[in-house]
Specification:
The protein is of the alpha/beta class. The chain has one domain (21-156, 220-309): Alpha/Beta hydrolase fold, catalytic domain (Rossmann fold). The protein contains eleven helices and eleven strands. The chain has helices spanning 3-16, 65-71, 100-115, 127-138, 157-169, 176-186, 192-202, 227-247, 265-274, 290-293, 295-309, and strands at 27-33, 36-42, 50-54, 76-80, 120-125, 143-149, 172-173, 203-205, 211-213, 252-257, 278-283. Strands 1-2-4-3-5-6-10-11 form an eight-stranded mixed beta sheet, with helices on both faces. The protein has a three-stranded antiparallel beta sheet with strand order 7-9-8.
Length: 310
Amino acid sequence: MSADYQALMIDCAKAAGVEAEEFALPAEHDVILNGIRLHWLDWGNRHLPHVLLLHGGSLTAHTWDMAALGLRHKYHLIALDQRGHGDSEWTAEKYLHEDSGDLMLEDTRQFIDYLNFERLTLVGMSMGGMNTIRFASRYPVRLDAVGIVDVAPVSMMEGQREMHDFSEATAELFDFEDFLDRAKRFMPHRPEAHLRYSLTHSLKKTQDGKYTWKRDRRPRPPLDLSEQELEQRAAERVAARWQDVRNITLPTILFRGADSKILSPEVADQMIDALPNGRLMVIPDATHNVHSDNPVRFASELDGFLGEVL
């Protein structure tokens, strides 16, 4: 990584109020698993308790960087670019008809096998949080504890619409600063230095010189089902996810952003009722991106939880 990246990191940390013992840069790695090249970050200190971090949709492994600066001296942190995101490869055309959640779940299983740690803590946000829920339900023997960040089997439509509209409006732009200006309007609560840092890792240049998101935006093949069948399938998916939640017996912390438009207070309470060994932590001054909006408080609460259960 370049010195420019480190300078952006330091500016971002100052703006976010993050104090670090050292502004260390994570090591970058790639591995071929499940037929795809996956990119991941390693924050070092392999002798410490292992924590694997899974980002949300449209984000990258670097979304955890500010929180990682406050945690890396106590935990061995690994952050994965999930398929179709960040610097990991996209799903091959011939597999686009397959469920992306199922593919990511298998990626995660193989990646944890590859890491070969006896046990670890799995923490996931949004899309990564659903991946975490499904993995913890099926493979609890591999885990010590679970962190779920601002997600549940059902979400508030308001937040989903806002994120979709922002993504569509910024599909391709000629100027990085235009991306930054739009991000500032969409997330006025976030310091400019933090937004600039995040966009640096989330954007790439196209062949014609425009900027676009790194994530895979290709449409998936439509299912040959009636509207009634699609609704039934969606209901069955939600029911299965709630069963996954009920199956997680490991110590689990659910983070909710106090200003989230994705995870409502009512559904967060339902999650805690469904989790056999769960607790809720509401983070102030945070929207859906809890760990980015308030990385200091998020890191402190995750550290407190892990210090108690590990």
